[in-house]
Specification:
The complex is a heterodimer of chains A (195) and B (107). Chain A is mainly α and 195 residues long. Chain A folds into 2 domains: 76 residues, no CATH class; 72 residues, no CATH class. Chain A is 51% helix and 7% strand. Chain A has 7 helices and 3 strands. In chain A, helix 2 packs across helix 3 and helix 4 crosses helix 5. In chain A, 23% of the residues are buried. Chain B has 107 residues and is mainly alpha-helical. Helix content of chain B is 64%, strand content 11%. Chain B has a two-stranded antiparallel sheet with strand order 1-2. Classes of the chains: A mainly alpha (195), B mainly alpha (107).
């Protein structure tokens, strides 16, 4: 049986890898690159890591061995460990999924879910927003109603969660009303308001 | 262990301080740093150290130079810059202050 090896340049070293080890190496480097996405200087770190892999594998090869296999690569990668960005939390948990688009939420809404949507999008306290909205309503002599109606029309509704909080009467009516208005005005698919 | 979850961020925060200390003592390359930290509470890996050193270099706290090695390719030797030395001194002083403060409470 013929074993085909791939020659790989790792920073300043050149090594030969068998197919399995080569695939694992590519996987590790791709993973590292994606973990370093937010790093301002990923190239330097990747070059250092490549060199580390090369050094660790070389150290583990028997005299006369020319091709790196998983037997050397796995323990080498184990010792190097996966990339940890400095200052990140220990397990670097995936960032909390913030909804990218500004949406209204019918579940838990008081009127239509505009305040709730704003609060979730900008990570503010929803009660505070509602109080401000009421104060603005009183202070602007009702002009706030127009602003609210405008936002109601513009902000898309978040899809309802099956088994989520039940939608109360007013939010359900508001949603139906908004959808009716959108159909009337020909804005079925409101332009998504980007962050 | 409940305490562990509180200790991990402390270690993580102090690693940078420790790396500055090690690099400050003498010019070292990464396997030297790993060896010095091995077996302590701050045992770490290349995957953690390289991104950290890259950050410290961007902050102009450390710099490196290539040195030929007897076996294999040239190695990156790190040492502190003047800014790095100043920051290490400040950290050292602050660390001592914190230690004294902590020791003075709870009697």
């Amino acid at each position: 049986m013929q074993r085909i090896a791939t020659t790989v340049r790792l920073n300043r070293s050149v090594l030969q890898f068998d197919d399995a080890a080569h695939a694992r190496l590519e996987q590790y480097l791709a993973e590292s690159a994606s973990l370093l996405q937010s790093d301002p200087d990923p190239q330097e770190i990747l070059a250092d890591l490549e060199q580390a892999v090369a050094d660790q594998c070389t150290r583990r090869m028997r005299p006369g061995q020319t091709v790196v296999t998983l037997a050397e690569l796995e323990p080498a990668l184990e010792e190097i460990g996966s990339v940890q960005a400095p200052g990140s939390a220990t397990a670097s948990p995936p960032r909390e999924a913030t909804p990218r688009v500004l949406q209204q939420f019918s579940e838990g809404a008081v009127i239509s879910g505009v305040c709730l949507g704003l609060a979730r999008h900008f990570q503010l306290d929803v009660t505070l927003l509602r109080v401000i909205a009421v104060l603005l309503l009183l202070g602007t002599g009702g002009a706030m109603v127009l602003v609210y109606l405008g936002l109601m029309l513009l902000m898309p509704y978040a899809p309802l969660q099956s088994g989520g909080t039940p939608v109360r009467w007013l939010p359900a009516k508001s949603r139906a009303f908004t959808e009716f208005l959108r159909a009337k005005l020909g804005v079925d698919r409101p332009g998504k308001i980007a962050a | 262990m409940a305490a562990e979850s509180k200790l991990a961020p402390i270690r993580k925060g102090l690693l940078e301080f420790l790396v500055l200390k090690i690099v400050g003592a003498k010019s070292v390359y990464v396997p030297d740093i790993l060896r010095q930290l091995a077996g302590t509470e701050f045992t770490t890996q290349e995957g953690t150290l390289y991104p950290l050193l890259s950050k410290l270099r961007r902050e102009d706290l450390v710099q490196y130079e290539w040195k030929e090695s007897d076996a294999g390719p040239p190695r990156k030797y790190y040492r502190l810059t003047d800014t790095g030395r100043a920051q290490l001194a400040a950290l050292d002083e602050y660390w001592n202050l914190i230690n004294r403060t902590i020791a003075n409470f709870g009697h």
